[in-house]
From TrEMBL:
Residues 46-60 have a biased composition (Basic and acidic residues). The keyword ATP-binding does not apply. It comes from the Bacteria. InterPro entries: DUF4178. Residues 65-197 form the DUF4178 domain. This is DUF4178 domain-containing protein. Signal peptide: none annotated. It comes from Catenuloplanes niger. The lineage of its organism: Bacteria, Bacillati, Actinomycetota, Actinomycetes, Micromonosporales. The keyword Transmembrane helix applies. The chain crosses the membrane at residues 6-28.
């Protein structure tokens, strides 16, 4: 073999080595691309974590006679319910009874946010609704809204199964609520003070239906 041939052979050999190395690199890269990505590390989950508080504390929109409502540590039984409508607007009011025989009303409304209010009767009120403001027990209430609604009664409410109710709602600067209601054509007005409840202040225990 002369010198030219030797150089030719060596050159070809080097080219083949380089081609082989390139082929190996390409094959290795493809094999890495075909490998599935490792699964993410498992994270601990809180079984009680949920964005839906109704799943934990019950849904006030579904309250019905026979259910139990715990409000600020006191248990109340739902004795009866009123479903009220005025044009396209609707809300519910539930008559509550505790172990001591005390009674209250719980209203549930979406306007558009959920509003839950605990109402207690104010006896012997001499103030009459309709004025722009009403003064009661040292607090001034400003008129919020008024109207006339149709109602349907279930359970024990002391009212007919269907009827109408006129209402005047007032609110004080500190958020205290005052409502006047007159059922049917009696002309008798009943007054109640209301306290808005935050979601953490009540829990609902629905009974089997």
């Amino acid at each position: 073999m002369n010198g030219g041939s030797a150089y030719f052979v060596v050159g070809v050999g080097c080219v083949l080595v380089v081609v082989g190395i390139v082929a190996l690199v390409i094959a290795w890269n493809k094999s890495q691309q075909r490998k599935p990505a490792p699964p993410p590390a498992a994270k601990g989950t809180d079984p009680f974590h949920t964005k839906d508080e109704d799943a934990l504390r019950g849904d006030p929109r579904t309250l019905a006679p026979g259910d139990i409502v715990e409000i600020r540590g006191t248990s109340w039984a739902v004795r009866g319910s009123l479903r009220l409508t005025e044009a396209s607007w609707g809300w519910t009011e539930h008559l509550l009874d505790d172990a001591n025989g005390d009674q209250a009303w719980l209203s549930v409304e979406e306007d558009p946010d959920l509003e839950v209010v605990l109402w207690r009767e104010v006896p012997d009120v001499t103030a009459k609704p309709g004025a722009a403001t009403v003064d009661l027990d040292g607090r001034r209430y400003t008129k919020d809204e008024s109207g006339r609604a149709q109602f349907t009664s279930t359970g024990t409410t002391g009212l007919n199964e269907t009827g109408t109710v006129k209402y005047h709602d007032y609110e004080a600067k500190d958020g205290a609520l005052l409502s006047f209601e007159s059922y049917g054509d009696s002309g008798k007005w009943e007054a109640a003070r209301g306290e808005s409840l935050v979601r953490a202040e009540f829990r609902i225990y629905p009974q089997a239906r």
